[in-house]
Amino acid sequence: MQAPIPSSDPATARAGAAPPSARPRRPAAGRRLGGLCLAALCLSGSAALADRRVVVGHDGRIPEAAAALRLSTSPDLLAERHAATGVVECGGVRGIGQLTGRADVVTSAAHVFFDESGRSRAERGRCVFILTGAAGRTEVALTPDPRLCGSTSPYGEDARRDWAVAHLARPIPGVVPYAVGASVKVGEPITVVALESGRRTFDFCRVRELRAAAGGGREILTDCVGFDGLSGAAYLVGGAHPRVIGVHVGFRSRAPDVAAPFAADHHTFGTALDGAFGRAVATSTR
């Protein structure tokens, strides 16, 4: 029998310290996990293993200043274009989210909002969206809505359902939300923006494979870097006018700590912003 492939879990970040590792996600009863790992971070003070970082090919994630140099633009302009990317903290876990379509709508991964038992993380503590920019830190409350999530039990579901849309308590002024992108294409260059230790970093990578489901929705396999706390980060296209085509969910790897070429047992993945996910965003941004 083939051994299961290790993979990533929900975001885990300790307040005021480096985030600890997330725990492997549990499959639904009678269903093999098959190496799936999600990538969220815990804010509790409990001891944890070192954070996982999965490198597919090479680690191309770079700081904002280096990304601006690569794109022949200014750091300030690059920061303005990607100011919509922020952090979601919900009931003791941390992931990435981004304003999408409207200044009060955030997209992310469902496992950032719902735990292994299918309970809303909001039952355990506050849920907020945090942006940090030139004007300082902005923190706005949000409430997970089961009607706007691909699943409320994402740990036992297909990865294509691990998406979420949430409404903020109020719009965030002065920030341009990301637009919604068109169809995803194999080989398409994408940008994945995240916050690491409070600083914005950029990964320039590619869509390597698409997996469609009979019931709709598509899984996006990429050669992007994966790490604990990246859950919910947008897959962006469009350069100067960023558009969201999907969100990051996790990774699959037999050796997460060893850099290796893209393969069926070594890649990162997310869910495409189409099908039910696309309809939820369209409904929320009318």
- Average pLDDT works out at 85
Total number of distinct structural domains: 1
Distance separating the two termini: 50 Å
The number of distinct helices, counting runs of at least 4 residues, comes to: 3
Order of helices and strands: EEEEEHHEEEEEEEEEEEEEEH
Fill in the CATH topology.
Thrombin, subunit H
Radius of gyration: 17 Å
- By CATH, the architecture is named Beta Barrel
Strand content: 35-45%
| Helix proportion | under 10%
Count of strand segments = 19
Query: How are strands sequenced across the largest beta sheet?
Result: 6-7-8-11-10-9
Q: How does the overall form come out from the CA principal axes?
A: globular
Query: Which structural class fits the helix and strand makeup?
Result: mainly beta
Poorly predicted runs of 5 or more residues: 1-6, 9-35, 43-49
Biased composition (Low complexity): 8-20
Region (Disordered): 1-28
InterPro entries: Peptidase_S1_PA
Protein name: Serine protease
